[in-house]
Amino acid sequence: MKGVPPDMLLLMTGSGIGSVDENFIYNQLGYDKKFIKDANYAAQEDRHLFSLIPTLLQPKSVGDIRLRTSDPLDYPLIDPRYYENEQDVKTMVSGIRLAIKISETKAFKSIGAKMNPNNWNVPGCTQYGKGDKYLECVARSISTTLYHATGTCKMGASTDPSAVVDPQLRVRGVEGLRVVDASIMPEIIAGGPHAPVIMIAEKAADMIRGAKN
Ligand SMILES: Cc1cc2nc3c(=O)[nH]c(=O)nc-3n(C[C@H](O)[C@H](O)[C@H](O)COP(=O)(O)OP(=O)(O)OC[C@H]3O[C@@H](n4cnc5c(N)ncnc54)[C@H](O)[C@@H]3O)c2cc1C
């Protein structure tokens, strides 16, 4: 629909869980060898694998980041609260269904591509058959991050009590300090944050050059 940003990204990668080159992406995403073994993904390792990774572009669930201690060098406590909002689960299940549908198109069939049958073996979910309950269980069991965290230091108007920085990116209540990075986005954007972060930085450079404070 015109003007409505997408809520789902299908990220295509030239590897799959169980690929010999699994180190490329799946280790980065934190899947352990036990999961790969238990779902028998290694059975496909002599094949060419690719993935369609359904990704929530507008998650409704909001996590938080808190200080663990007063030591600034200590790692903070991060709670992403994945799937706290049920709508996110529904969107993810429809994204998985879409990826399956794409794998069954003529174009994919013509190159001999088919969905990895091991996708139906995810440990802890097999009792749900092949319906939405299974896909929901898979989503809750093996979802991971694309490292697109944003919004922990929100920009907003002075009337917004949840805003940390003002529209010039100055930290409210602190003299001479700005925050210029992905954290100032008031809401997560429906796409990769890299280019928008560069735009934020360019805009901030212009504001700082033109600013008196
Ligand atoms: C593996 C991975 C893949 C990604 N892929 C994509 C992608 O394909 N497309 C996309 O759009 N986005 C992608 N992202 C997200 C994107 O990289 C981030 O959203 C973006 O880099 C955030 O920019 P930033 O300036 O907010 O933070 P960063 O890029 O993290 O910059 C923070 C900087 O601060 C420095 N720093 C930290 N602490 C201190 C300190 N105490 N003193 C001085 N300097 C400090 C760090 O060294 C770093 O240079 C990916 C992220 C990851 C991790």
UniProtKB/TrEMBL annotation:
Matching InterPro entries: FAD/NAD-bd_sf, GMC_OxRdtase, GMC_OxRtase_C
Span of domain Glucose-methanol-choline oxidoreductase C-terminal: 59-201
Protein name: Glucose dehydrogenase [FAD, quinone]-like
Protein family according to the UniProt entry: Belongs to the GMC oxidoreductase family.
Protein source organism: Priapulus caudatus (Priapulid worm)
Name of the encoding gene: LOC106817192
